[in-house]
Amino acid sequence: MNVFITRKLPDELLQPLRDAGISITEWTAPDKLPQEELIRQCKLHDAMLSAGRINMNTTFLNACSHLKVIALMSVGYDNVDIPTATKLGIPVSNTPGVLSKATAETAFLLMIAAARKAFYMHRKIIQDEWRSFDPFAYLGTDLYGATLGIFGLGSIGYEMAKYCKAVYDMRIIYHNRGSNKKAEAELGAIKVSFEELLQQSDVLSVHASLTPETTNKFDKSVFSRMKKNAIFINTARGGMHNEQDLIAALQAGTIWGAGLDVTNPEPTDKNNP
Question: What is the pLDDT of residues 155-178, one digit of tens each?
Answer without folding.
Answer: 999 999 999 999 999 999 999 999
